[in-house]
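User: Could you write out the 3D structure of this protein bound to zinc ion? I've included everything you need below.
Assistant: Certainly. Input first, then the structure.
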Amino acid sequence: MAFQTRNAPHRAHEYLHRLGMEIGDGLFIHPIIGLKKEGDFDSRTIIQAYQVLINSYYPHSKVLLTGLSTSMRYAGPREAVFHAIVRKNYGATHFLVGRDHAGVGDYYDPFAAHKIFEEIPDIGIQIIKFYNVFYCSKCEGIVSENTCSHPEKFITKISMTKIRKMLSEGKKPPKEILREEVSQFLIENFYLITEDYR
Ligand SMILES: [Zn+2]
């Protein structure tokens, strides 16, 4: 089960990872370590944050972490297809595609990357689609619209943009959306890509 990312891991990612480990033989976490846009985490921060999460919580025998050296193009659905083919070529049998895969701002329909796989022929890797994953204070956990229908007052949407903003202000995000160990690591070590980043 391959998982594409360009971010440090938050609890909604973790929810997908665990489902991936349930469905697949193992989880292949494959962060992009090429060029990304200004304001994203740099690659070293992402890899090290993943190491913190894996070492603190995941069964080592089920998880493989390695970087993918390619640029992010923020090409939404087309990039989702590219990402899936690359992971197939790495030997993955399944590929997780969440909400707004390879999107930027609100440019794409958040589910365009799901629809494109229904329109193209079989590319030889099974696409596992996820929709909205969030924290629900009534359920007391990370859930999705398939597993929780509580009203909005109980729901916290998990956004890495908001998390990065909190970290930039020296604030620790709640443990319900970011693991304490990952928060601590990021507060002490995080680097964002800036205009003059090389
Ligand atoms: Zn709920």
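Residues 38 and 195 are 6 Å apart (CA to CA).
User: Perfect, thank you.
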